[in-house]
Every structure is written in C-alpha cells, then in structure tokens.
Write a structure and sequence with these properties.
alpha/beta, about 55% helix, 7-stranded mixed beta sheet, about 750 residues
C-alpha cells in the first residue's frame, strides 16, 4: 500500500530513502507508544476515569500543534541550520529521560480538568514536543535531499508507525514489561531517534542558501486553509467522543483507549498512501456508512455492547478515512508542506478542545457525538451512486419532485416519532423506519442538501429526540468530568444509570420499601450478608467504609452506634444521592454521612491506621473497577485502613472481565484469606441483580466466622501463571471473557 522507498532519485539512492523512512517510523512509533504508557503511569495518581484519557489527548494534541508550529517556523531557515536547531531541541528534551511523572501529590481543590494536563505536560511535554516536530521536518528534508521527491508517502509511513506504537503497547509492551522497564526501553528508542535524525541531517545540502527552504508555489487561500482545519477537526473530535463512549461502557484501560486513536491514525496511512484504490473506495461508501451507522449509534444496542463497540469504531474509521482522503486531495505542493500540517494539527486540537473541554461543560449528554456525525456528513465527499440517481437530482423537474418526496416522508416519520417509537410502524417493527430512511439516504448521496436533511432527521428519530426530552426534564440528567448520569422513573422505582450501567434502584411511594437495599446490594448478596454480620463480628460500634457512593443504597444497612464514611470521586454523584432529594437512602437511613471527596485510594492513604472494621470496594467506572484499585499497592492501602481482623468486600461483577483471578493473586501475595459469593436472584425478583462479591481478611478466623453464616461462600479459583497486579505491571488480556 505504502512504498515510500520506491522510485529513487539520482544522487539520493535507495539507502537515503530507507534512512528517512526509518526515521519517520521510529519517531512516530515512540510518539504514540508514550501516550498509553504515561496514561498507565498516571492511573494510581489520577484515578481510572475515562475523562483522564481525554485530558491526556488534549495535552498531546496541544503539544503536537506546538511541534508542528515550531517545524513550520524552522522551515524558513537553511536546511542544515534546521537540522542543528532540531538536534539541539532533541538534546534538551533528553533531560526529561527516563520518562516518568514529574509532580508529586495531587493538590486539593484543583479541578482534574486543570491538574491532569498540568501533570502530563510537566512530565513529558518537552519530549513529546521534540519528537512531534520531527515528522514534518524530516518530510521537508526528504523533499530537499531527494531534489523534489514526493514526501507525502512518508506521512502515510509516519502514521503507520504511530499505529504500530499504539497497538504494541497493550499487546506486547504492557503484558511483558514493568513500567520501569518500559520507561528505559522508550528512553533507548529516543536516543536512537536522535542518531537517525543526525544521519538524515548529513544528507542535507550544507552549502545551500535560504532559498532552498523557501516555498515557490502559490500559497493556499484562506478558504482552503479553513477547509483543511474543518476536515481535521471532525475526525479528531469524533475520535475523542468515541473514546468517551467506549471507556465509559466497557472499561477504563489502555487496551480500549488506544482503539479509537489507533484507527484514527490508520486512516491517515490509507488516506495518504501512494495506492489510492482503498482510500477512494472507502470514501465513496462513507456517506452511506455515516447515515446508517450514525443512526444506529444514536439509538444504541444497550443489550449488545460489543455490537455497539464494533459499529462505533467502524463509523469513526470510515469518517476519518473519507475526510483525511479529502485533505490529501487538497494538499499543497511539498514546499508548502509544513503549513499544511500546521493547519491539520490546529484542526485536530480544535476538535479535541470541543469534545474534551467545551462539550462536557456545555452539554448534559454526549451531544457532541451526533453533532460531529452530522458535521462529517456535511464534509464528506459525495458522488451520485448511479446514472439514474444523477439524472434525478440534476434534472430540474425531477429534482423538485425528489425534494418534495423526501420532505414529505421525513415530516411523516418525524411526526410519528414524537408520538413514541411504536407509533412508526407498530411495536417491534421500528426496523421498517430504518429501511425507509436508508432507501432515501442512498438515493440522496450526491445531492448534499437532501442528504444533510435526511441525516439530521435520522439522528433525531433514532435517539436524538429522546436525549433532548431527558435534557429538558428537570434533574433527569447530569454530566461531570467522570461521565453522564441519567435518572429514570419506572413503575414504582427510580433508577440511576452511568452509561449503560445501573448504579442504583430505589422503590418510590412506600416508606418501608424506600429503605430496602436493591440491585447488587440486596440482603442475600455478598455485601448484604457481610453487613448483616457486623454486630456479630465487631459489636454495636462497627466502623464501616464504602468506596463508591452511588445512590447511597448501602447506607440503609447502617445501625445506631455504627460509624460510616463514604469515599466518592465525583461531586455530581454526591449531589444526586444526598442533595437533590431524588434518592432518599441517605436521608432516610444515614442523614448526616461522612463523605470523603476524591480518589478513594488516595483518601484511604490519609486515613489513620486500623480505623475501619469493614471496607466495601464498589468503585464502578461504568462496568468495571478501575485498575489502580486492584493492585498490590492498593491492597496494602486497604490493609493500612482496616484493623487486623477487618473485612474487605470487593465487588467484581463485570460483563467483560473475569476479575476473580486478579483478586485471588493479590490476596495470596498479600497474605489475605478470601471467599466468594456469587448471588443469582430468583427470576421473579425485579430489583435484585446478579452480583459477585469477594470477602477478604488477613485474619482466617474472621473470614471463617463470615463463611459459617448465611450464604454459599466458596473458596476462590486461582488462575495458573497469573501474578498479582502492581502499580508497575498489569495486563487484562488474560481476563477477557470473550477469549474463553
């Protein structure tokens, strides 16, 4: 697909081309290997919220923009001087080796929106800046050294290297190497890159004047530059919006963080390849994909999360290929290359700012997702699919008739939609609506105004209107740095959802039922049985800690004389559970709770030794416990907070990961005794959920006393070859349920 070493120029040679390609690949590989690596290093300090990755991406995009601006400015001096200056910048960046986190501790009262970028920028900013600039610089040097060779194929190679770095981290680097080893390996790669850049510099004409570096082709118009920026903005913003969706509804971990970014980078490799067949084909069918997949994604398949995952990633990839292909078609001559890449980086940064900063602050739902899908539909190149369709939209009389039909059908569908989904074609037949929309959309590809109208109505019909209804309903939805929370009222119950995960259900209308613990915390569950044993194990003044407040359900196990405290990272959850009156567990059962705000692990580190008798770990990040709460070091923190005979209850219910072997390994490593209770409620029980809890204690007698009580407590099942996770090493690949 990409053959940047072909067609050697006289006096330059194949060896020269191989050198420049190797330099591009090495720099890009390092640049995108460091992103998940540093995010992984930051997990114990910053917590596992998906927004941490989006904040990191904003830092990377800003540094990339700075690097490209520096490269654009540097391109105005003589090539040999460019090389000397850049080698100096690389040498300055080397002062930050080996890579690691530079700042100690988290300042209290500082928003993570500000603290996360500051930490990452101080830790790897100079290194990332230096490496990011070498891609446009080396391409410009290649054009000069090869006397007019086309550098754009090297950009395809650059993004192939970037994709390789991202994929290598979760599949090879993270499973095989501890963080310290990863840091040293990356540092060695950085020094190798410096040598490669120096070797490229030796290929530059030393005696050249400044004229060699000055552009001679016509500059791009302001309209063209704005078009470049828009084409870069939409895929970048959609990549972050997709990352938010995936890491909210699956698990906050590098393996999934890198998928959207990896496909985004791979799209550049296809779009900028010398062979145009794949890019042109995908661009041709992209309008259909945007229309069909966009509507499906807004509607969603909550019961089929892996289908959602596949569709979301496919949509992102198709949009990115199509819009980046259009950028390639509008590229300038090689002597204007650095300005082109600067506009691209600026658009990418704007997309990141919109999806990562503006949208969470302005919207109470992920409205940036349909907005960016619609923007992609407006920008994507379109051609009529058949001669008959072309005739329909280019003949004035036929065009007026076609617009009339499209508008009439859309008005009917939209009107029926606002009466409820079942009103379209009857309950269970909503698929017919999708077929009608698809037929109209396919017939409108190439007629941009009609296509845009159909896409807009599609996004409204398949979920957009429901989102707006919830936004208009007072208190129904809240968005914070850590996600989107939705409150739904059903028949006698009220439910709190984070993404697609239920965080709590409470009965309404009955003072007695309002106090009943539900879902994963029902009395027969592991945590319910442990709470029932508190008096027997620790007396009337038991000290209880709960990591993860949710709706406050567990508070209704509190008894007079007991001392409780909760650990919650998100102030929005505290408002929902305590202040709004929508859930009354705290009001009814524990009206004046002690709540520690912040990451639970960091808060527990500051607690007095042996200050708890029971600690419940229920820190959902949508459908998973964040990885940094499952390491050897984290369990040492729990041991510090618990008294020697204390109990630790860990909630491991998860659709995608089998966390039992992780808890077993860390328990054996830390001298904990452990037992599990997997509770499956009767089918007729509406508000009790299947749950998996593990009880641990460093005192065998305490665990035996709990196990001899009610419930079918069982010993844990070890996994051969699986060691305890640490802050320095962890891998979820062996735990994926769909691998078994």
């Amino acid at each position: 697909m990409v053959d940047p070493v072909a067609n050697d120029q006289p006096g330059f040679g194949r060896a020269g081309r191989v050198l420049f390609v190797a330099t591009i690949l090495a720099g890009s590989f390092l640049l995108f290997l460091v992103q998940p690596m540093v995010a992984r290093m930051a997990l114990p300090r910053l917590g596992g919220a998906p927004a941490v990755w989006n904040s990191a991406m904003l830092v990377y995009q800003t540094l990339l923009l700075g690097g490209y601006a520096y490269a654009h400015a540097l391109a105005r001096i003589r090539p040999w001087m460019q090389a000397m200056v850049h080698l100096g910048v690389l040498a300055i960046g080397a002062a930050w080796l080996p890579i690691g986190l530079s700042l100690a501790g988290n300042p209290h009262g500082v928003s993570p929106t500000l603290w996360v970028p500051w930490l990452l920028g101080a830790s790897i900013g100079p290194l990332f800046f230096a490496v990011s600039a070498q891609a446009p610089l080396v391409q410009r040097w290649f054009s000069i050294a090869s006397r007019g060779g086309d550098p754009y194929a090297l950009y395809a190679a650059s993004n192939l290297g970037s994709f390789g770095g991202l994929i290598a981290y979760p599949l090879v680097v993270e499973p095989l190497l501890a963080l310290r080893q990863q840091s040293l390996l990356w540092s060695g790669g950085y020094l190798l890159l410096m040598l490669l850049v120096a070797a490229c510099a030796l290929r530059l004409p030393r005696a050249a004047t400044g004229e060699t570096a000055r552009p001679t082709s016509a500059p791009a118009t302001r309209r063209r530059v704005l078009h470049w920026i828009a084409l870069a903005l939409v895929p970048s913003g959609l990549m972050l919006a997709t990352s938010t969706y995936i890491t909210t509804d699956i698990v906050a971990m590098p393996l999934l963080w890198v998928l959207p970014l990896g496909l985004y980078l791979l799209s550049f490799t296809i779009a900028f390849a010398a062979n145009r067949e794949i890019a042109d084909l995908l661009t041709r069918i992209a309008p259909i994909t945007i229309l069909l997949f966009g509507g499906v994604m807004i509607g969603g398949f909550n019961e089929l999360p892996l289908v959602n995952l596949a569709i979301a990633l496919s949509l992102l990839f198709m949009v990115s290929v199509a819009l980046h292909t259009q950028m390639y078609r509008l590229r300038p001559e090689p002597d204007r290359l650095t300005g082109f890449y600067l506009a691209m980086a600026f658009g990418g940064a704007l997309g990141g700012v919109f999806a990562g900063l503006i949208a969470p602050a302005v919207f109470d739902w992920t409205y940036e997702y349909p907005i960016l899908i619609f923007a992609a539909g407006l920008l994507v190149p379109q051609v009529f699919l058949t001669h008959g369709i072309r005739s329909l939209w280019t003949t004035p009389a036929k065009r007026r008739m076609a617009y009339g039909v499209v508008v009439a059908v859309l008005l009917i569908l939209a009107g029926l939609t606002f009466r409820g989904p079942a009103a379209l074609f009857g309950e269970g037949h909503q698929g017919l609506t999708f077929i009608v929309i698809a037929a109209l959309g396919v017939a409108s590809v190439g007629a941009r105004a009609s296509y845009a109208l159909i896409l807009a109505v599609t996004l409204v019909i398949f979920g957009g209107w429901r989102a707006v209804e919830l936004s208009l309903e007072q208190g129904a939805r809240t968005r914070s740095y850590f996600g989107v929370y939705t409150i739904r009222d059903g028949r006698g119950v009220r439910e709190l959802d984070h993404g697609t995960t239920v965080h709590g259900i409470q009965f309404t209308g009955s003072p007695v039922l309002e106090r009943l613990p539900t879902t994963y915390y029902a009395p027969p569950s592991g945590i319910g049985l442990a709470m029932g044993a508190l008096d027997r194990l620790y007396g009337k003044q038991a000290r209880v800690g709960v990591v993860g407040l949710g709706t406050g359900t567990l508070a209704c196990y509190a008894q007079p004389g007991q001392r409780w405290r909760f650990y919650e990272i998100d102030p929005a959850v505290i408002r929902i559970a305590r202040d709004t009156g929508q859930f009354t567990y705290l009001k009814n059962c524990l009206p004046d709770p002690v709540i520690r705000i912040g990451d639970a692990r960091l808060s527990l580190e500051r607690e007095a030794r042996s200050s708890l008798d029971l600690l419940a770990l229920d820190a959902f990040s949508s459908d998973a416990i964040p990885m940094h709460l499952m390491t050897r070091e984290a369990f040492a923190v729990y041991a510090h907070a618990l008294q020697p005979k204390g109990l630790l209850l860990v909630h491991i219910s998860n659709r995608f990961l089998d966390l039992e072997p992780v808890v077993d390994a860390v328990a054996r490593d830390g001298g904990w005794h452990a037992a599990k209770l997997y509770y499956l409620p009767p089918k007729h029980t509406a508000v009790a959920s299947a749950s998996q809890w593990i009880a641990l204690s460093r005192d065998a007698a305490t665990l035996d006393a709990l196990s001899r009580g009610p419930g079918d407590w069982q010993p844990l099942t070890p996994r051969a070859g699986l060691g305890a996770w640490t802050d320095d090493y962890s891998s979820i690949l062996p735990l994926l349920k769909w691998r078994r």
